[in-house]
Amino acid sequence: MSEDVPRSLTRQIRVGDVPIGGGAPVAVQSMLTVHTDQPQEALVQIAELAEAGCEIVRVAIPSNRELAGFAQIAECSELPVVADIHFDYRLALEAARLGAAKLRINPGNIGDGDMVDAIIDAAGEAEIPIRIGVNAGSLAPEIADFEDLSLAEKLAASAESYVEHFQERGFQDIIVSAKAHEVASTVSAYRLLARDLPQLPLHLGITEAGTLLQGAVKSAAGIGALLLDGIGDTLRVSLTADPVEELKVAWLLLSAVGLRHRQPELVSCPTCGRTEVDMMHIAAEVEQRLAAVDKPISVAVMGCVVNGPGEARGADVGVACGRGKGAVFSRGKVLYTVGEDQIIDALFEEIERL
Predict the structure, then answer these.
(1) pTM, to two decimals
(2) How far apart are CA 212 and CA 258, in angstroms?
């Protein structure tokens, strides 16, 4: 964890064996795209997500048809399984009984207070937490039509009203999220929650962020801003893409803000008129080969002496290129020079020595 990013100290809860809040590392989540009534396929996807760095997985339970499959998934999964429930409170009661590690509900679309209370009681009996997940499209009914409130204020006020009710019933194992597809509104909502509910762990995300490129950019802008504020205890990068891509973006984001490092970081300069090697090819090939390296190291590919060992002095290993050649260096110290066609192999020989 970076010393430059002070974390807000929230109350710690546990989702299965994963701690959330209270100084624990920011946990990475994703959600299955496989239908819950296909448990074997779901377990295969969970294994793929775990390999990619997922620590908590969420599954949708839209109807009674999925409950039998959910029970098998919850029993056999190598990751804690969160049951995502909307509209029908009875599904949440069954999910808690069948082994969910956490429930995710939006009280705004569950129904009346008695239905929400039944879910609170079921979670308390099962000793599992609940994420109160408020979205822009399903705000608290009594708050949604307030014309003098911004979207961010409506999101925060909705979440805070639900938290107050949960706590009045003696339920404390709460995680909160307040998401919109608008980055600025989402960031503002979370900042309000961090101010008003400083003790509660927050689940970060930009909902409906879009496809891989747009979604990654929006998520990095919103989630990254909050993490740099010290806000957030767990996150999901929501993409219209293979959920493995969500995890790649999540870990790159956590690494970029200095919180967690799981894979190599590539430091590469932009090309310009000083570059005298095929920088784009070299950087792309290095990036591709680094995908197989399981070390939290930094590797620099610099195009000229201006962007050479001086600017990448902190890199574990790197290359500063000249006319048809490259000077291989480690932590700012030049080791040797090789021809352009040897640069990539030389870099990876040094990486193997680390």
Answers:
(1) 0.92
(2) 22
